[in-house]
Structure formats: structure tokens, C-alpha cells
Amino acid sequence: MPQTTQIGRKITLNDIAASCDVSRATVSLVLRGSPLVNKHTRARIEEELRKQGYVYNRAAANLRRRTSSSIALVINDIGNPFFAEFAAGVDEALGNSGFVTLLGSTGESSERQQMVLSSLVEHGPGGIILSPAEGSDSEQVLSAIGTHTPLLLFNREPVGGRPELSHWDLLALDNQNGGRLATEHLIALGHRSIAFFGGHADSSSCRQRRTGYVEAMQAAGLETPTALQIECVPTRTEAAHRCAALFDDNHRPTAAVCYNDAVALGLMLGLRQLGHQPGENFAVTGFDDIAEAALALPSLTTLSTDPRARGRQAAGMILQRMGDPFALASHTVAPVQLVVRASSCPPLSS
Amino acid sequence: MPQTTQIGRKITLNDIAASCDVSRATVSLVLRGSPLVNKHTRARIEEELRKQGYVYNRAAANLRRRTSSSIALVINDIGNPFFAEFAAGVDEALGNSGFVTLLGSTGESSERQQMVLSSLVEHGPGGIILSPAEGSDSEQVLSAIGTHTPLLLFNREPVGGRPELSHWDLLALDNQNGGRLATEHLIALGHRSIAFFGGHADSSSCRQRRTGYVEAMQAAGLETPTALQIECVPTRTEAAHRCAALFDDNHRPTAAVCYNDAVALGLMLGLRQLGHQPGENFAVTGFDDIAEAALALPSLTTLSTDPRARGRQAAGMILQRMGDPFALASHTVAPVQLVVRASSCPPLSS
DNA sequence: GGTTACCTTTGGATCGTTCCAAATTCCCGC
DNA sequence: GCGGGAATTTGGAACGATCCAAAGGTAACC
To answer: Does the residue B253 lie in any domain?
Structure first.
């Protein structure tokens, strides 16, 4: 049983009504700016409201009106800058529409996600934006939130979704197109032997980005030998260590499309240790456009996902869904944008 | 008038009571785990609750009981990793105590802060954690939240606080001690000519950190000539540019205590361009322990403020205050911890 | 059987707001 | 002065839970 705390005595509609010698109903009309109430009465009441420091009790109103003025936002890790920016965008947009954000952080644990969801749902949010924890499955989620609260999934889909359950909206990034854009950019610069570097095939985002890479290469009639598709844990240090694998056989790549910015930065480090000059004789691209990408030397060409804008978009989507609970589920893929910086140079030979 | 949205028909206590042929009161007792109710009845009711997918309406309960189960968290910028981590800590701790976090982001605008605060207050949070936007003043804040909701200030104090208003709790970082610790560490390594680098004197945190530096230097009988106290905008690039100022005259520092990590990383860049080897013939310390500090080359000695732990602490403080609204305001200064890494080397000569 | 005590259950009022239908006041023309 | 429509105001019943005092049931004991 969760704890709660007493709060101090507050001024209510009744207090104001009594002081003004009118009924509760009239004061309520004033609060809602109804045109029904007489100018003079309104002025008197508004004065009294200010004088007594009245604060509206939205919970009570929501109870009576059977409405909600909050939206729950459940994120796997708020500490991650990508999600923090996303949250900022959500909150900004919701605030502008008069909604308040109920925050929940799951730390990538699906058990905690269950707890957080069922706690939040008790506060009666009008909708939920959820970026599912790894390994959480649809049935769990469904059982926690029931069928009455609209849900928008962000970034991933929970596993094991029986098709009949996926009536949920989805907002995802256009990973595939991003991979394609980066690759096309390198091809346009004149590169012919281009690697795909980093990430793991069991991550859906990595698979999607690599699909875009293969697509662009094939469209240009270029080869994508498996020797040029190098997996590694997506961290800076691992990427630096795996760098040498690029030159293991005779494909001699002159450029690499990296899974994300962390990998790209690590790769640049590794390249230097091997005597290459990223941005001068070897081109590198990333994905995410983290703050460091612009500051690195050379600055990193990457795909901007604009997480803050994604947040605003997610807010818009859930509000729309709340307006029309029976509309078909929308699966939206958000665009990503290529940001060209110094790390993507033309090949030396061209 | 903020917008709100209809939500679907939900199962209530009444529905369950009717199905089980008992009164609302009994069901309510079951929900709250009261020992009064008969084993057998409880089982029947619990079964029914599950079967019908009942979800507790905490808003209604809070209305009747005049309690709150939420806390508002208002942050100047959630996108900033420091605050994002802080928020994560707050949410984690509140969640564990059965409270829910109402999020608000102000983007450093005091007007927006007013709007956010008054909107949040209408949802009846049991308390508010506020990291004030720059330039917001106490009277504003007071008028937005009234005197009934406990407030905890984090990180800064709003300006213009008349003393009789500051009955608010405060959680701040021990900037001064941090500056002292870093400086003492360098002194212990054998450095004698140590600079304080970066930040602006009109920032209170910078002043406090520098005070700690001066304190340590004087305690060791060392000089702190103004030529070794170099101000600069606290960004990486500015720090790199100002680096040369360290060597403008004949003090020849062998180490620098930096205002924060961004400045320290920039300084290391600048040092290299001037032919020095940070971590080998010049020692550098930072402040904040951002994620990059551990990854930089050389890794950065810095002061960890552990924002996530600060968040947990803030949550604890506001809960405590809610438990005892009339206790004296507590002004807590959170410890910072020296994290020694590779960038703080001994001087070459020693 | 009646009294006591204990274990369970319950009706009805209440929290602060909104809804609704009906009541009251106002103003105007005849 | 009065009928009538418009403009205002209003009492009381909701919303979904909790509290409280009191009632019902059971069992034991004299």
C-alpha cells in the first residue's frame, strides 16, 4: 500500500461562494469563463478568488466530469540524453495543451515497468506514452494498463505481440532510410568500398540501419561483402578495438557507415592509432547526432533524429488518439536528417 | 482553459460490490488490505476484482481522504544530462515510496516557470521540487504555489528572497568543498603553482568553487596570484582558446583546477596544441563527472556530484517535509566526491 | 434465555467540483 | 401593471472513493 500524506486546509468553491453570497454553481461558472454570468457578479467573484488565494482542484473536477488532464510518460532510461530530450519535447507539447506529464522511469527492467505502469494508471492518465523496456511483452503491458487507456509505443515494440493485441499506435525512427542516406552520401563523394561498422544483429535498429546500407550499395551496383559488415558492442572502446578488422582482408574500405555516434567516435580513435586520418583519408558517419558529434575532431557527419521534436510529435499523436479512441492504429516512422560535417571526406584517389 | 479528454467507462467499487452482493464499504476495506474483513469474503471479492479488471481510482480516494500521492518536479532543463540524472533519481525514490512524479520543464524561462507551477499546483501535489529558472524571484514563486504546498529548492535560490519568505528547504552542492578537495589533491601530488581556470565570477557556483581553491592554497601557504585565476565562458571551445593565458607571465603553473568538466576537457585540448601533455607534464581537474570524463584521454580527475543520488536525496527531503510541515527549514549541502583519474599527474620536477 | 463480547458488515454523509432542470430576476412593450 | 422572453442564478444529485457510528451475526458464559 503506497504511502500518502496529509495536505493543508485549502480554499474551496464553497468558501468563495459563501463570501460572495452566491451559490457554488455560479462560482463554478465564473471559473470556467462561462458567458452566462453577469459582468458585475463575475468581477466580484474574481476579486474574491484572488483575495483568498483560491486554487482550482482539478482532480475533483476531473472526477465529476470523467475527464483526465494528465498523460503518463514511461521511459526506459531518463538518464540517457536521447530519452531526456524526448521527454523534454513531450512535456513541452503537453504543457501547451494544458496537460501535465506523469513521469515514470523503468531502468530497462520489465518488472519495474509493470509496477510503474500500474501505479500510473491508477492516477487516471488520459493516455500513456511508453518506450518499452527490453524484453517486456505485450500481454504484460496489456494487463497492466487495461483496454481503456490509449497507448503510444515509442522507439520499440514489446516482444511477443499477438497481432490482435497490436491496436496500439507506434512512433519509430526511420532507421532504414537513415542507413541509406548516409551510404548514398558517401557514394556520392566517390567512395566505392564502404563498410558497415558496429552494432549487433539482434538489435532491430541495427538490422534496419544495415538494411538501408545494403539497399544503397546495391542500388549503386556496389558490393557488400560480409567482411565489410563488422559487428561490435556499440561502445566507444569496443569500436576502437575492432577497428583493425576493417583491414583484415583485401577490400580496403575508404569509408564506414557506423551504427551510431558512439561507435563512430570510437572508430575514429582506432583509425588514428592505425595511422589513418579520419576526415582526411577515411570517411566516417554516425547516427543520433549526440551533442559530442559536433564537437569531435573532426566533427562527425551523422543522422539527426531530433529527439525533442519526436517528443512533441508523440505528444501530438497521443492527444489525437484520445480525441478519437476508435481510429485505426497509426504506425508512424519519423524522418531522420543527414547532417554533413567534416568526418565525411571524399576518397583520396578521386 | 486547458483542454481535457473523455475517458472510457471504467469499473468502480460499486460494480464490484454489486457483483459480490456486499456493500461498497466492504470492497473498500479489501482494497486497503484491512484485517477486519472475513477471509472468505475477501477471497471472493479479490477474485471479482481481478475478473473485472478493476483499477483503483486514486484521484477519488485522494479527494475523500484529503491526501496526495504525487510530487511535482520542476526543472529548468530536462535535456541537460545533469538534471536528467537528477530527475531519474527523484522518480526512482518517489516511486519506491508510492508517489508519482509530475514533471515540468521550464527551459530557463521564469514566465514559463510561473505557468508550469500554477498548472501543476492545481493537480494537488503533496510537495514540489524546484530547480529555479534563472532570474525567477521568490515572490513570483510564492504567488504561484501558495503557502499550502511544501517546496524544496534544488541547486539555486530564486533571487530577491525576502528573508521572511525563505521558509523553504534547500538542497545545494558543496561547491566550495569540491574546489578545496581538488586543490588539496594537486598540492599533495607536489604541485606548487596551481591555477583556477574557467567559469564566471557572477555565477555563484563558480565563486564557491574558487573560494575552496583559495582556501586550500592559503592553508598550504601557497600564492594565488590573479594571473592564475582565469575566467572564461564555460564551454569546451572557449576553454581551449583561453589556454594560452595560463602561460602569459612568469608563474608557470604545473596544474589547473577547472570550473567544470567541459572547461577541463577544452583546456586539455588547448594544452596539447601548445605542446604540453596533460596527464604527463601538466595536471588538470574538472567538476561534475559527466559521462565523458571517464572516457577522455587521459581520463579526467574530477568531482562527482552524483546527480542521481541528489535526486534520491531531494525526494527524501520533500517526503520528510511533508511528514512534518512545521519543522524548521533545512538547508542541506550535498557532499561531492573526488574521483582520481589519469589527468592529475605529479609535477615532472618532483 | 439473556447478557456480553467479538468479529463482520453496512448505510449514509462527505471530499470539491460539474451538470441539469427549474427557479428567480430583469427588462421591454403594450 | 402585466405578460413574456431573455438573462441570471440556483439547489441538489452526481463522480468514486473513505470514514464513522451503528447494526447484525456468532459464540461463549452464566
So the answer is: yes
Cβ of B25 less than 7 A from strand D: yes
Interval A316-341: pLDDT, tens: 999 999 999 989 999 999 999 999 99
Residue B260 in any domain: the answer is yes
Instruction: At A174, list the grid cell.
Output: 526511420
Question: Does B275 contact chain A (CB < 8 Å)?
Answer: no
Give a yes or no: residue B3 inside a domain.
no
A59/B56 touch (CB, cutoff 8 Å), yes or no: no
Please report, for the domain that includes residue A259, its CATH number. Answer: 3.40.50.2300
Tell me: do A209 and A117 sit in the same domain.
no
Instruction: Say yes or no: A291 and A313 in one domain.
Output: no
Nearest CA in chain A to B143: A53
Q: Is the CB of A52 under 7 A from strand C?
A: no
Find the Å distance, CA of residue A28 to C1' of nucleotide C11.
Answer: 30
pLDDT tens for A72-105 read: 999 988 887 888 999 999 999 999 999 999 999 9
In tens, the pLDDT along A154-201 reads 988 887 766 555 689 999 999 999 999 999 999 999 999 999 999 887
Nucleotide nearest to A58 (CA to C1'): C17
Range of the domain at B26: 13-56
B61, closest nucleotide (Cα–C1'): D17
In this complex, the answer to whether residue A329 has its CB under 7 A from any atom of chain C, a nucleic strand, is no
Q: What's the rounded Cα separation, in Å, for the pair A57 and A41?
A: 22
Global pTM value = 0.87
Burial of B289 (0-12, 13-18, 19+ CB in 10 A): buried
Q: Give the β-pairing of A151-154 and B100-105.
A: unpaired
Read off the pLDDT of each residue in B289-298 and give the average, rounded to a whole number. 78
Percent of chain B with pLDDT over 70: 95
User: Using H for helix, E for strand and C for coil, what is the string for A145-191?
Assistant: HCCCCCEEEECCCCECCCHHHCCCEEEEECHHHHHHHHHHHHHHHCC
A103 and B104: CB-CB below 8 Å?
Answer: no
